[in-house]
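Task: sequence in, structure out. Protein: Ferredoxin--nitrite reductase, chloroplastic.
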Amino acid sequence: MASFSVKFSATSSLTSSKRFSKLHATPPQTVAVPPSGAVEVAAERLEPRVEERDGYWVLKEKFRKGINPAEKAKIEKEPMKLFTENGIEDIAKISLEEIEKSKLAKDDIDIRLKWLGLFHRRKHQYGRFMMRLKLPNGVTTSAQTRYLASVIRKYGKDGCADVTTRQNWQIRGVVLPDVPEILKGLDEVGLTSLQSGMDNVRNPVGNPLAGIDPQEIVDTRPYANLLSQYVTANFRGNLSVTNLPRKWNVCVIGSHDLYEHPHINDLAYMPATKDGRFGFNLLVGGFFSPKRCAEAIPLDAWVPADDVVPVCKTILEAYRDLGTRGNRQKTRMMWLIDELGVEGFRAEVVKRMPQKKLERESTEDLVQKQWERREYLGVNPQKQEGYSFVGLHIPVGRVQADDMDELARLAEEYGSGELRLTVEQNIIIPNIENSKIDALLNEPLLKNRFSPDPPILMRNLVACTGNQFCGQAIIETKARSMKITEEVQRLVSVTQPVRMHWTGCPNSCGQVQVADIGFMGCLTRKEGKTVEGADVFLGGRIGSDSHLGDIYKKSVPCEDLVPIIVDLLVNNFGAVPREREEAED
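Result:
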């Protein structure tokens, strides 16, 4: 199938004014929604809870009762002023000892700096920060990668980088005095960390094979770039969307493989034609949280390609204006959709559209339902004749400075100086002339570190940061997931891909609910002692028959996981115990 090429009216998109039901989405759980999708809501409930003051959007006084601590911190001091008024320059000059003497300054480094993509690792790396970038569609360059390597190298053993489950880089070990210079360096290579944490729009995800896949539906890169440009106002800060009730995820689907995981995003653009026009059906409300996980549901809306940014803008404004700001576990956008009903929420979106119109969804879905998801690791032909891309396995997404320099070199020497990050924490080198493939495969980095053909259980292994760095994580994940998987591989032979995901806490950054087998960190008891453990999830699916997994067994000590995983693989995934396999041989 030929992919779609769409001309964008970028300027108008960025300056506009104030039944993809096959994904088996379930209705919202907390409101009995009538067949029409309408819920009766009092008129006063539809009054916007925020208002613009001096260019910033703030919560009105009448809606401040019962708000959560994060909202109080935003009211006490506008987080974006650390960027727009260069507050970061001032706080970077203050010692941590002095910062600790002031609650306002402590909240700056622990809460407000997240609007600049900086996360203080107070619990495990006091005084050091993780910096999360914006990398739309996961596309980066050799120059950008080298710059990030130069940043983390100076921090020695404290410095490293991770590929995230949103096609993004996170770098670690950053200290506060260095931040102003790092931000300038990011800007010089075309990167930003702005609005990548807390109550902001996260990195726009797209097809990692965009523009090179012979079977892609549409190249998602222009859409992801436009969305990112809108959200950050081209790195200047878009103050109209920096005070959301909670974080907000968006993706654009470009392949039948659904590499982008639409069912777990707040907004997913699903390619569809209508009356000869190319555009997208919309899914809304997908999210994970400790108290509830929900799959995205159809908004019964279709937009032409030129309206990708305007509809994103209006959905964000509806959420910003009407979302509740009390219990943080009940402030994601799906809770608002529950309260208003799908039709009620849709009506609020329509009210905010430039022409006050939003077409109903199209029946002309372009994503094929019966599609076997393809592997992208290894050598694969591109749509460009004579070229291939090579998918590299990055074990649980962790890289060091030297690794990043080598990846940058390989991308330049063999490809076009470009790297693609994936939501499975791997990296793709595109645009390699076929005559150079053998030489690339013989490079030491591919032989010794980042294999294009890893063992079958390793190739789909995903792990969050874990408690090595993250203060939210209950258990260590990255090293443990590798060690346990290695042990399991010695015990069973597996012939089909099995996706195993690890997350250190119920926030589920490791997305265990979409895994075939998932492990969520917890503390449990064994022989009278408290030990690190995991709740085991089973049955998550991705693709057109997506389904969130269910808890299979709770509170298993980590040291007891291997036999349980072996049993699951044998009983559910056709694995054969190696002792039996050897006997049969």
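The first strand starts at residue 50 and ends at 53.
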